[in-house]
Amino acid sequence: MDYKNHLKFDQSLLSSLSIGSILGLRTFLGSIALTSLLVGSANVTVSSLLPNVILGVIFSCVFVSSLSRIPQSVAQPQDGPAVILSTVIASAASQFADNSLTTVMIVNVFCCLSAGCVFWLIGYFKLGNVARLLPYPVVGGFLAGSGLLMLMFAFKPIAHMLIDSNVTDTIEVNKSAFFTILFAVLTLQLNKNIRGALAMPLMAIIFTLIVFIYIQLSGMSHQDSVKYGWLIEFTAQEASAIKFPNYLEHIPNVLNILTNDWNQILGVSIVSVVSLLLILSSIELTLHKDLDINHELKIAGISNIASSIFGGLISYTALSATLLSVEKGGKNRFTGITVAVVCGILIFGNLKFIEFIPKPVINGILILMGYGLVKEWLLKNFNKLGFYDYLSILVIAISIAAYGYIGGILIGICLSVAIFVLRYSRIQIIKHELTGKDLQSRVIRSKDQANYLRENGLKIRVLKVDGYLFFGSVHSILKRIIHLISNYGVTSVVLDFSLVESVDLAAIETLNRAAVYCHDNNCNFFIANCSPVIFKTILKTANFLNSSNFYHDVDQALECCENMLLELHREGFKEETRWLDSPKFAELVKFMKVEEYKKNERLRSEEHTSELQSRQYLVCRLLLEK
Length: 626
Hints:
Blueprint: H1 2-39, H2 46-67, E1 75-77, H3 79-95, H4 100-124, H5 136-164, H6 167-193, H7 199-218, H8 222-227, H9 236-239, H10 251-287, H11 293-310, E2 315-317, H12 319-328, H13 334-348, H14 359-379, H15 387-425, E3 430-435, H16 447-455, E4 460-469, H17 475-488, E5 492-503, H18 505-520, E6 524-528, H19 532-541, E7 550-551, H20 554-567, H21 583-589, H22 606-625
Parallel strand pairs: 4-5, 5-6, 6-7
Antiparallel strand pairs: 1-2, 3-4
């Protein structure tokens, strides 16, 4: 038995080490790609920032793998926040061009620190489930827009080289661009045949050999290879040192960046939280078990706060890497730790080999990341979502790609409001419509009056309204009232507000217009069953409606409508003897007696009341039969 357990442990450990090694290589290449994305808009080389980034990755991997409730969890730098971070860095670098490296590190550290604090606070106050209530189209549009921006960043250096190059250079640049696209396409095809994380590292090794052979055969120098986009600009000596700038000396710069780019820094934190929640939800669905979302958020928060000290990128549990670790690795925590060890060996070993990693491979990895987001949120959702939801995602994504995150967010908010109003305005807030013929008050009328009310009951309408009344939905009430008065000659309208939750100022103004229209067309306008809060709000805001338009319940409002309708035909009714003046009532009075009670004295007990009611019923029945 011990031998079998030992064998299972060895197999599990071997699986974790093998998968961890592959994921470590992929994490390292992805970190280089994201670092090149960050420094692309600043006058900074990849080699100057990469050691700090990898050090942050190592810490995040070890910390998350050790403390997460998912033993196979693997933390990696995330592409979604990195795209927004690159725009913040580009804006900051343009302001402080004389010290670009320090500026890049300050922005990176502050964004990572703020995202970590947001993670921890949401987890600490147990708001993880509340954050899941973000609208799906907004989240999808945000991430799809990040994918489009990543694709644009991948092709941006190639476009610049084509513009700035002569004819000979253009041929070499085109070859580099072709290799970039070819790497991405072949990796995608290979990924369909090889399940797991092996496709990208395998293609990276193959393309590195091909590019190296091509450079040797063409006789290009290392400088020309960097110029034509074949190799990245990387200096092993520069990358061997980890930078820790004196942040206190740059407090004015930090305050300046916060003042100018606070909204995008906040966007980094929002995207990070939403992305992590989506990842954790996907892992829950795959593993068929509930996770402690708040615990995972706190772990990610502490990890990023600590990683920001080293200058690392925003990192948290990666979906594909974690699921691969669950499927192929063992049920232990060695996969994430192996990823950290591999990254440490690669960055702190002989860094000379990084100079020969082809730029088409790095740009190809960015294309794969961007395409992954676009595929997940735009292509896969084409047949899944409704027209308006998909339109929201598409418009927000294109707006972010065209105008940046701020423009995309503003357009997305306006579009979401417009779609909400359009959808909600189509909902029938008038749940029921009754006439005075269908529903009458409890007042006892004479035969002539009752017959008249039944014959003319269509002139009284009771509209039962439901839901939240706002400017997009309440207009249907006004249209219906105008239609009833114009086509049916309605003389009284009662709105039953028993199911109305709340009203906004625009809705009150529309109700006020309805009351004015009714008054101008000799129609009574009443509101019944109105809550005290809505009643006070309407009286404060509306300049035409007053307390005479409100009744406690529908029965009282109907009584008023019937009285006004009968008043128009008062001369057509015969005078009838009132029941109180009839001989039967006189005989009933004989059985009554006068009783006097003091203030606050109990009139009848429950048993006595029921006995009295039965005796009164018997007396009334005998009189009626007589």
